[in-house]
Amino acid sequence: MSKPELKTSFVISPFGEPFDTYFSHIIKPALEDCGLFAVRGDSLYRPTTIVDDIWQGIRDADLLVAELTDRNPNVFYELGLAHAISKPVILISKSIEDVPFDLRSIRVLLYDKDHPDWGNKLRAALTKAIQEVMTNPLSAIPTTFKSPIKTNAPEESETLLRLETLESLVHRIADSGGATYKDGDVLNDGQGVKPFSPKFKAGQEVYHQRFGTGKILRIEGGKNPRAQVNFDHAGMKVLDMAIAKMEALS
Q: Disulfide-capable partner of 31 in 38, 65, 136, 158 (CB 3.0 to 4.6 Å)?
């Protein structure tokens, strides 16, 4: 009997300190305690733009957490995308003053950094909220967006989406002559994308040129596979198997 597929969460947050520490020490552990694979925008390594990565991460997520502290415009942009497609989002903030008026009707987990044990308190509160939302996802979706908005636009075609992605990738290769992307991988020195090797599988130990050793948790995506890899020192990463330079260790 196969194991149930691990649910995915996406964390909407500013990058840099102190938010990197909040993510690694509080938000990510709380999500993992609830059986969710935690992804943040800077853990996605694909040959696409950051906007495409963020959009895909939001669409793939079963649940999201949004850190509203400091009113980061990118956070609100991504939160709007999530709400528009009826995704359940848990909101957290250091101050209610950082929460726009339009969002104050939604439950927000507030934390007080002056409290000596604020990190553990936030993690406990977040864990409880995640469990509640997983039981009742609609509780974390604004009323206006609980039903997907219908438009006159034709339904998105998976085939067209794949063709557009492929076309974009081909143009990148042609224009770049083998430019290096975020994860340090060269697209086959401008000669085309390497085909995915079936030698990789879930549970396998691997070595990546940038991130070192790790274990593949799962591979998804069919003809355009992505691997979720837990690296010993770099943590969780989502890698596009078409460009990721990994070696199988087992």
A: 38
